[in-house]
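User: Structure tokens for this complex, please. No commentary.
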Amino acid sequence: MSDNPNTPSTSENQNTAVTTDFGYKQVDKSQKASMVANVFDSVAAKYDVMNDLMSLGIHRLWKRYTIDCSGARAGHKILDIAGGTGDLTAKFSRLVGPTGNVTLADINLSMLTVGRDKLRDRGLISNIDYVQADAEALPFPDNSFDIVTMAFGLRNVTEKQNALNSIYRVLKPGGRLLVLEFSKPTTEQLSKLYDMYSFHVLPKMGQLVANDGESYQYLAESIRMHPDQETLKGMFEKAGFEQCDYKNLTGGIVALHRGYKF
Amino acid sequence: MPASALFSATIERLINQMLSMDPDSAARLKPLAGSRFVIFVTPLPFGIELHFSDRVDVLTTQQPRDALIASLTAADCCIQTSLDTLPTLKDTSQLTRLIQEKKLNLDGELRIAQQVSALFQQLDIDWEEHLAEHTNDVLAHEVFSAGKRMHNTLLTFTRKLSRTVGNAVVEEKQLAAHRLAVMHFNDEVSELRDDVARAEVRLQKLEEQANKN
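Assistant:
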């Protein structure tokens, strides 16, 4: 059984096509950003609650593992793209200390506002900057950051390869990029179970808790349209990253991709 | 599910919860702000990093120890030990002995290791007070008084039982020797050892005399 009627867009055809995927729908490239923005405007307030509910809290462990692999140290400059409600930023802020800096960037103002309020409520103010930015055209100078992270954000970007190129530009030589994103389960059984959960349970849960089933239908579809582990690794390499690898988490439901700029 | 992340999350929650229960811990945590303490415990397949700020962040590292040591700064300390030795680290005066016995490898700032040890050693948690926040003073007092009474009763019972079993084994059933008898036997063995040593010396002298003649 497969609920996926399409194949994921590859990096090659993303740049030449006029349309792009928005879940299973094909939409004009110029429209995707605003459509994604609508989704996140709608879910921003309940984003954290829904994440906990949908993943049974496991998303916190995936994010923690990402931080473990980041090698973040006192004094580092870190860019957390699509940082949303600031889960990674909160921890990075303490790890880099007063001599370092974390920039929380998100294209969506609603998410950025929720994130900023949450972090300020926790007393995290001194070393965090908030920037509304498009991952495809990051508004930072070349070689600015020691670490760039992107957790559950890349699949919403219209031109993923452009985003990776842009990240490569702002990373310092020796810096690393970590992308945590939904991926392809490694076993057929898990894949079937996961499909059933995402297409039948998730939208209903979204409707019940966030009063927005459609956004969670989009979430399930966008996950299926996202490049698989090997394709994304190839895109990393195409952007110029070296020593690229990935680690499947929870049977490949999520994968953490890592690449270095030398 | 990444097991290492679950492990570090549990440890982190536990440590910060304990520290928050001791109002004096903030003062001990302050000099550690910005420091990193890394522990490699055999047989764990990963290292554990403690990052200090106004709280403790626990990370795991897959980096090999040698590579990690190369990246240590003046605000870092890294130790490698085994699970058996870990409880001994409570006593900071034992650190030098453990290093000499190669049961502990320490790289970086020793001061950080001592401050980390002090942070946890000097934890003083008023459990009764914390329970009272969730129940009330009377109930918390009663629970702890009952706990102390039970502890004392158990202690007394254990001592009595130990005495009774001891008497039964030594006096009644005579399955083991009495303490005084063992001491007497030890003394006799010592005397015998001395006699043998003296006899050996005399024999040596006699042999020497016989050889001369």
